[in-house]
Structures are given as structure tokens and as C-alpha cells.
UniProtKB/TrEMBL annotation:
Keywords: Amino-acid biosynthesis, Methionine biosynthesis, Pyridoxal phosphate, Transferase. Catalyzes the formation of L-homocysteine from O-succinyl-L-homoserine (OSHS) and hydrogen sulfide. It comes from Aurantimonas manganoxydans (strain ATCC BAA-1229 / DSM 21871 / SI85-9A1). Belongs to the trans-sulfuration enzymes family. MetZ subfamily. The keyword Transferase applies. This is O-succinylhomoserine sulfhydrylase. InterPro entries: Cys/Met-Metab_PyrdxlP-dep_enz, O-succ-hSer_sulfhydrylase, PyrdxlP-dep_Trfase, PyrdxlP-dep_Trfase_major, PyrdxlP-dep_Trfase_small.
Amino acid sequence: MQKKTDTARKLRPATAMVHGGTTRSSFGETSEALFLTQGFVYPSAEAAEARFRGDEPGFIYSRYGNPTTRMFEERMMALEGAEDARATASGMAAVAAAMQCQVKAGDHVVAARALFGSCRYVVETVLDRCGVACTLVDGRDLDAWRAAVRPETKVFFMETPTNPTLEVIDITAVAEIAHAAGATLVVDNVFATPMLQRPLELGADVVVYSATKHIDGQGRCLGGIILSSAAWIDENLHNYFRHTGPSLSPFNAWTLLKGLETLPLRVAQQTRSAARIADTLAEHGKVNKVIYPGRADHPDAAIIARQMTGGSTLLAFEVAGGKEAAFRFSNALEIILISNNLGDAKSLITHPATTTHKNLTPEARTELGISDGLLRLSIGLEDVDDLLEDIEGALSAV
Ligand SMILES: *Cc1c(COP(=O)(O)O)cnc(C)c1O
């Protein structure tokens, strides 16, 4: 038997993000090569036949797979401890494919109600049109997950920490409930990033990312990825992915590979800055409350201590004075930009009630804790003292 040596050795994240998954061409290039090609040629008709039969390894068509895209998938697999992965054109392509590939009409899905708006549209509307029912629950209420289970329940779906109120759901506990029901648990791990939370190790079956966020981290391109066991990908995703085509462009895969090289550094720095900003905001008289998973006063601090290794690069806070005060604060900022994106090198502020969550009814927003004074702050790579001065200056304008 062939012994697995160095290549199988588990590298620490910072090393895996620089070297993981690299496949060099015959030129021996240092940096990852960008294979801008739709298709591949075969040395003979017999070779083409063998590759289509699956008897010979190799690429067939870039909708199925591409060398640059595969390097991105393998680097993410090394980080996540996943056996296989498929990279997608956006985070939403990843969520939609991860859900749709494993359900059929008559099945049932349970999802935590605090979801990124488009994820909520997929589970509530897209799946419903295909005859897949969905029950939304308060993700922190384990009895609610248990009570929602039906004989036909196939998938549990959640995001933690949630957007924008940074609630934290116990992945291990929800995975146990899912598995007892014969369902799989899919976790959208965008807010924690693979640096701060490892859903597969905590019991989840599938993890999805919008690589648009921290993985690119520099505001350049969209991307996504689905990671799981080789068996889950083979049985559920492999054919669905090939024939529906949510594939990532090789150019974007190359950009994301470069993003991964600096992911550990960026997330560590942005998390340190976010923690300091959260503490400063919590002391300020014009701030009603701060929600930051790295603070001891977070309502889910006990779960966070078990499943996260840092507080995240995002925080939410409520300024006294509702929408008017929130708008005045946002408009007075000079460095922090108004944008609905997150995970970027540039610090970004969002007013969820009028942008990302405007489509929810006022009741649904209240249920999720999205008040008119709530702001979500994504901390970037600027000097934290400049950010603190910017925030203090803008608060004095409120
Ligand atoms: C941004 C985001 C998505 C969607 O990703 P896109 O790359 O924009 O399609 C999904 N889930 C969460 C939690 C996100 O923040």
C-alpha cells in the first residue's frame, strides 16, 4: 500500500493558504497559473473516450472543472478539512446549489430565520416553487428545530453568526438534531470565515461560503464554494453542478487564490480592530447597545467560547435616536464607507433596516432585532486609531 507522506500532512492554516492545492504546469511557475480556457484537447479518440468514461483523470470542460478553479477548491479543502469542494460563481450560487441538489418535490427543509436576504428567498420562495416546504425557526431555540422536524425533512440550513445582528447558533447541537432526523446540516460560514469557525469539525455536513467577502477581501470579484465529504459531493452535487453550470470563472478563482494567501493575516488584524472598536462603542453615551461575538456581554458567549476562535470582523450597534441618528452618523463618517458589502479591506457601514433587510415586514425586522437605529459595521484594514477617530467624530454629529 502506498503510504501518504508530506502532501497529506496537515499544514497549519497560514501555510496551507500560501501553498495548499498548488499544481504547477511544466514551466514550474512560482505563482498559480491562470488557465483561461473553456475546453481541453485529447491526444487521441481513445483518450477522450477514457476521460468521458471516468477511467482516466483529467479535465473535460471548464463548466465541470478547470485547473485554476481546482487549485482554489483544493486550497479551501485544506483549510476546511473537507474531502471535496465545488467553487461557484457567487455565494448565492453556492447556497442555491447546495440546497437544490439534495431535495425533490415533497421534501421539507428547516432553516434558521435570521438569514441573509437572498438565502431566505432561496429557502422560502425558490424551494417552495419546486414543491419543497420550508419551516423557519429561531435558530437559537433548539426545541424549535426539534419541533419543526417532519418525516420528510431532508435539510437543515443556518448561518452563524447571523446577519446583521450577530446571533450565534450552536452548530454541534443543531447537527445532532439534524442527524437524529436523518437530515443534513448546511452551514453558511461567511460571517465567521474559515479562520474563526470550522463547521465541518463541529458536526455540519456541508459548509458554504460567499468568497466575495473575506476570501477575496479586497472588493474585486464574486465567488462562492461548497465543501463537504467526497461521498456527499458524489451523491448530491457532482451531476447537479455539471449540468446546471454555477461554475466559477477561472479568472475569479485565480483572484481568490491570491486572496487566500493573506486571509489569515487580514482576518486576524480585522478581528483585533473590531474588538477594540466594539469596546469603545460600548462605553459611548450615544450608543444603546453593541453586539460583538468577542465580548463577554454577548448573549451567546458560552456557545461562542466553544465554537469560535475569535469574535469576527463585524459588529452591530444601535445609536440612540433611531433612523435619523443612524443616518446622521453614517453621513458624518469620513473614512468608513456606506456600503452593503462586508469582509473588505475597506471598513464599511450598513443600515440594515433600509437596505439589506428592507424587504422584511416591520414585524419580521423586530423579531430579528433589526431596529431603525441598528448599524452593521464591517471592519477593514485601516489603522484602528483612524477608525476610532472617525467613529468618535461621527458620534459627536449625532
Ligand atoms: C454575501 C452573502 C451571501 C451571498 O454571497 P454573494 O457572493 O453575494 O452571492 C450569502 N450568505 C451570506 C451570509 C452573505 O453575507
